[in-house]
Specification:
6 helices; globular; mainly alpha; 127 residues
Length: 127
């Protein structure tokens, strides 16, 4: 039996590895995706999960939507829109639990952005 964190780690690695594989053809996608992965946990802590998801959805850029879709898949949702809908419709205890789970999953994306994609910092990049 695996822990929730182990499941998140495996799933996040699979998705970030796909970005790494596409890096040769789309180097900007990997850099921008990595920047979002580095900034998203901080965005959650500063603004809350609902606003963080809404912000990323509002950007409507390929790398933002891809990141949110990947994060949603790790959390068991169909896509980023479904994750956002779940977040804004949840009760306070569910919202708090979902925030903890999302921070755990986003932490794996951040680690893999640094380790797999080689993104060192997100300077100059807005989340």
């Amino acid at each position: 039996m695996q822990t929730r964190s182990q499941l998140y780690a495996q799933s996040a690695f699979t998705r970030v590895d796909l970005i790494r594989a596409a890096k040769a053809g789309q180097p900007e996608l990997a850099q921008k995706y990595g920047a979002i992965a580095l900034n998203f946990p901080v965005l959650i802590l500063q603004s809350g999960l609902a606003q963080a998801c809404g912000f990323v959805l509002a950007k409507q850029r390929q790398e933002h939507l891809r990141y949110l879709d990947d994060l949603a898949a790790v959390l068991g949702e169909k896509d980023g829109g479904a994750l956002h809908a779940r977040v804004i419709a949840s009760s306070l205890p569910d919202y708090m639990h979902l925030t903890r789970c999302t921070l755990d999953a986003a932490g794996w994306f951040k680690r893999y952005a640094q380790g797999v994609l080689g993104v060192e910092s997100a300077e100059g990049e807005a989340p």
